[in-house]
Amino acid sequence: MADQINSVNYSTIVVNEGILSISNPFSLYHGKSIDNLQVAWRMSGPINSPVIAVLGGISAHRLVYSLDAPTQGWWRDFAGIGLSFPIDRYQVLSFDYLGGSGETTGPRGDAFPSISSYDQAELLCLLLDHLEIQRLNSVIGPSYGGMVALAFGERHPNRVSHLFIMSAADRTDPLSTAWRCVQRRTVEYALAQGQGEQGLQLARALAMATYRSREEFSERFRGLPRQNAGKFVFPIEEYLLARGKDYAARYKPDGFLCLSESIDLHCIDAANVSVPVTAIAVHQDQLVPIEDMRAMVKRLPQATLYEISSHYGHDAFLKEARALKPYLDSLLGE
Asked: Is there a catalytic annotation at residue 309?
């Protein structure tokens, strides 16, 4: 394995990141293998402090937070000095997902195999070996990251002390799969027409409608439609399409297809996750119904479920820093 590393020091905060090259074939859970796999990783925090892996949704990347560019970190409302996740006390490890749009190996206009949450968990284990980290303090995983955390806890219970998952279950909900199937078919059809970016815009617009709650949309978008070129355009329509356009400018259609499918392929054996689990469920979450998380916690050998309300729905893990702080404090021993 070869690694290219760049280092930056912010007083006591040390940032290391690099590209880990794996020359041996990497076998995948659903069959096939990948040769010459590359994994883009990042670890930041005070040297010799406990290490916590923080893994986000399929749109997340290895930049959990950034001191020199605060708006670029995907968990910027949570991770920082004095925030819910204290970066001055822990080292944060993350990586770009296999099959996504980041710098880790993924589809780039060519055929790419199906990826499992187990595959992402194995990459995390390889990173721990490479960085000579024997055991993680915990894995914090919202959404898809929670799926990967559960897979890691099942496969490698000796490498982590605790799992903290938000809006993630041991298997996917069929209605959520239905929504994502339509999103993927939209992108696939657009790619066949040579309009992949436009297809991704529409898929993301539909996805945004599932991330938030009826309550939030009712509060924000009750205004009357306006006319544009003789056609009515609704306030919520403008919002969703704007979010879709912004997303399509930053992500690749085939990376979206790969990780969206990975969510729907996710299914682990909760009874085999021996690691203690703290689970956070959101009553208004359309994608991960609270009943699914309740059922999962009953199957987990050591688990505690906390339920919160948020009009942000599935996106509460990005927006509800204040509501989630007490649970993070408990995890971190505050």
From this structure: no
